[in-house]
Design goal:
- The model has no long low-confidence stretch (mean pLDDT 97).
- The chain has 304 residues and is α/β, with parallel strands linked by helices.
- The chain has 2 domains: 178 residues, Rossmann fold, CATH 3.40.50; 92 residues, 2-Layer Sandwich (GMP Synthetase, Chain A, domain 3).
- The chain starts with a helix and ends in a 13-residue tail after the last strand.
- The protein has 10 helices and 9 strands.
- The structure holds xanthosine-5'-monophosphate.
- The site of xanthosine-5'-monophosphate (XMP) has 17 residues, from loops.
- Catalyzes the synthesis of GMP from XMP.
Length: 304
Amino acid sequence: MVKVDRFIEKAIENIRRQVDGKALLALSGGVDSSVCLVLARRAIGDLLIPVYIDTGLMREGETERIVEIFGDAGLRVVHAEEQFLEGLRGITDPEEKRRAFGEVYLRVLEDVAREEEVEYLIQGTIYPDFIESLGGIKSHHNVKGLPDVYEFKAIIEPIRDLYKDEVREVARALGLPPEICERMPFPGPGLSVRILGEVTREKVEIARRANRIVEEELLEKFRPWQTYAALVGKGTGVKGDVRAYGWIVAVRAVESRDGMTAQPLEIPHEVLMRLASRLTSEIPEVTHVMYDLTPKPPATIELE
Ligand code: XMP
């Protein structure tokens, strides 16, 4: 982006023009919504109410860390773990899952809006979310995953024209901490799109532990654009001479500039072997570990 300062000025002006009262800001703690938080705060000050929804589908320690970072910004934390599990119950199709997630996401925000008497919602949708949703590739939770009918007077998306690398530039210019500016992307629907098939409490726990191990092994050392673990099915194993019908974990690590295309990371064999060993020994329910070798395209980054 040529003129970051100009973008910031314009974005603040636009928010002021569109919002004539209080607004909720859906904060996930990722770089996109954090940038929107700073822009909106500068635009409407205390009329902004940042809301963080704990979907129960976050990574280990994520909610606690977000509260530590943004607690001073008057963050309201909503615990909606049960609502999301309930909304996702029995759903196996990836697109249906995304719509079910989007429905609960918006209804939870509407509940807060009613309580706080707020008419506007600000969210950190970026350009690729639109391209992928409207191009029919996958329904991002904040675009096509949203229900058509909602109570908000308007949903405002201050960075809807930006790619991820541009959002990071804006984040740096706004003075957000490096932990946020360089934060690895994490999808709104969280671990639910890293569990193929139905989402259950048990699978979420296993996916959460697997994601922690993968991040511990790969994040610092290789600095991938994105890395994660997904539960892709079940397979027969043998643990302690006993048959174990356990989870197959797929590990993904990619390089990318803006998430629109991606290349799998070349990871040394011994690192992959350590991952396999840690995942199968530290998580008793895991029997197989695989590494995803596909670029985007033809794959996408998340499996669902
Ligand atoms: P895909 O899987 O489409 O992902 O190649 C591209 C980037 O978008 C993230 N992603 C999402 N982000 N809501 C989000 O906020 C979503 O529904 C969603 N789906 C995918 C993905 O993690 C990757 O960084």
